[in-house]
Amino acid sequence: MKHLIIIGAGMAGVTAAEEARSLHSQQELAITVISQEDPPSYSRPLLPQLLAGTIRERELLLHGEDWFCQQGIRLVCPAQVVSLNRQEQRVTLNLLHHPKAEAQNQEVLGYDALILATGSIASAPLIPDPGTAAAGSVFCLRSLQDVQELRRHVATRRRKAAVLGGGLLGLETAMALRTNGVREVHVLEASGYLLNRQLNRTASEMLRLYLERQEGLAIHTGVHLDTNQLKSKSVAEFLKPVCGDGTETLIYSMGVRSQLALARTAGLACDKGIIVDETMATSDTAIFAAGDCAQFQGVTWAIIPAALEQGRKAAQFACWRLFRDTASQQGHRQPSPYTQTIPRTTITVGERQAVSTGKAVLTAEEENSGRWRNHEVSPVKKRSASKLGDTYINLVEDTETGTIVGGLAFGPSGSSGPVAPGATPSQWLPKLKQLVGRSWQEDEIQPEM
Asked: So what's the pLDDT on residue 449?
């Protein structure tokens, strides 16, 4: 019997375990999943809803211990892998739930193939040391434990909070704090406008107006702060120039970075993530990587679609490595290689939604180059972006070819009530896809569905 070990029980790790079990029975393949968290498998994108109090903790769970048992998969949690011996193909882990000394509660497991799905951690420039003025007032939102600690904190500090980072998670966190009862919530974004990779300036301005007027947030863009000041200042003192007096809570929402400590210590090739090829294999052919910790063709996605796709491929190629001879004799072919994940085209913030296709958002350099041109074809122009109920449509033209290369729609998601047919951005997506590749002729492009 072969042994596959998967380190990490997030979406990539559990997807890999499920795929491997679908390919080989318990009699052929033993699967062990190791997780540092308990519960091990839950949906991180739902953490803001848990913070808001709109869902319960059990609603986050993806798979409980009973699912692992039913699948014939051994689950070890909470446990921390402290060493990876590539030459002997074994891992050493500390069983964290035992109260005794660490040396007496270690387990050594051998593997035939190993999948690293160690995920990522929040980018936090500085967490104040205990005993300093800001200690206990600065948080991240990456784990179930983070939410539990933050909820306990704001339960008695509901005056004012700030979120450093205006990405999708930062905005969801800010809205969750308002729902939780914090009276004043500020969002501090370094760039010139919110979601500058997903939205153009007009759509971003519409989103800002919605967040301020209907969600009650205070939005600040172009904000640059030196978090080293938190070594000596309280959160209130640190944020006073931007947020005024009395800020009690600061939450970092500044993206994530891959968890690479184990891979680097083991000598695997790493950059921003663990470098993998089209089979999800690392620089050690017996070890694969998937999800937030993996880097393919220079990209570390840290998005759910990539975690699911990479988890499946890592399992398929790990099993192919273990059972190639038998599979070939039975007429099975090598799995198809992993190709780069295509990012999702839809994002939702509160009751607003954006959909895009192709080259939908231009950088400042691209706008100034003369090569590309924006065409606002919806009734909403920048001067009327305050019409919060309208759907805004923008098309991007390649002036060298005269063709439409991308489109963006932004407006109400329809979650707050019925809207007119064709009014939501998601209903516009098929139309936008049809327009991409067509010649730009303004008199033929109509904003109606």
From this structure: 46
pLDDT at 326: 85
Phi/psi region, residue 222 (left: phi>0; alpha: psi -120 to 50; beta: rest), is left
Which region holds residue 295: left if phi is over 0, alpha if psi is between -120 and 50, else beta?
beta
Strands (E) across 226-336 are located at 249-252, 256-258, 274-276, 287-289, 294-296
Per DSSP bridges, beta strands 90-95 and 106-110 are antiparallel
Q: In what order do the strands lie in the sheet with 138-140?
A: 138-140, 249-252, 160-164, 184-189, 217-221
The structure tokens listed for 260 are 């690479």
CA 378 to chain centroid, in Å, comes to 31
Q: What is the largest CA-CA distance in the chain?
A: 77
Separation CA 113–CA 316 (nearest Å): 11
Nearest Cα to 408, choosing from 206, 199, 208, 202? 199
pTM: 0.89
Selection from 125-134, 268-277, 300-309 with the highest mean pLDDT:
268-277
Question: pLDDT tens-digit profile of 330-370?
Answer: 778 899 999 988 776 788 999 999 999 888 999 889 989 99
Residue 249 token pair: 């809570």
Q: Give me 320's structure tokens.
A: 């192919």
Q: Which two tokens stand for residue 431?
A: 């139309």
pLDDT tens-digit series, residues 263-298:
999 999 999 999 999 999 999 999 999 999 999 999
